[in-house]
Amino acid sequence: MPELPEVETVVRSLEKLIKNKRIIHVIVNYNKMIKTDINDFKNNLINQRFIGFKRRGKYLILELDDYILLSHLRMEGKFYYGKDINLKHIHVIFNLDDGNNLYYQDFRKFGTMSLFSKDIDIEKIINIGVDANSDEVDYLYLTNNLSKSNRSIKEMLLNQKVIAGIGNIYADEICHRCKIHPASTCSKLSKDDYKNLEKNIKLVLNEAIETGLKDISLDGRFDLSSINYLREKNICKYCNNEIIKIKHKGRGTYLCDKCQKLKKWK
What we know:
alpha+beta, elongated, 4-stranded antiparallel beta sheet, 12 strands, N-terminal domain of MutM-like DNA repair proteins
């Protein structure tokens, strides 16, 4: 599932490939993917150029001459750029003035696209918390928003209304580097735990972004082994203990039960 680093990679790839390219035609093969008026979407995009490329959390914000194209890849969304690409599950095609196309593929059809006028407050539309990779996510923010909660630290890291952009893979990695059990209650964590979270949230995300940019691509997928993505039967890099997998709140969760001790209300 694309998370903040993957979406950042996609945004930067799109900027390299389609900046200042003009849309001459739009084909939508699955109307439910478009969350604003479908006819306005297809008609208003004609003759619009891609001029700005941003990311907020897991959202892509593509700025056009007069509009904002908002896209969320959900679980399987991918973009492709080229000509006469023959793939299944292509749901949106943007014909561009350079003779190439921008294709959107989504096996599960969970991804979304919306088109808004540029004068709209896109932050109100997105309605998510502060970006996980921003300077706002500091010790003060974390303690103010997490330390009084009786939810688990993993739940709160995944709460997009509190911190936007972190998904399951990176939440496990952040907890592992902080030596915090993912099921630990936020209110039971120490000041040092929150200082470690402040540091490692950005470290993990930025390392993943840098890894992705070495092999920049529109599908956003890249090798995560360099940031020690925890997999079952892997060995903890701190103590050589075997990594285990548990279920926490319905999610597969990887941890070292030697380094990551549970701090929880009894």
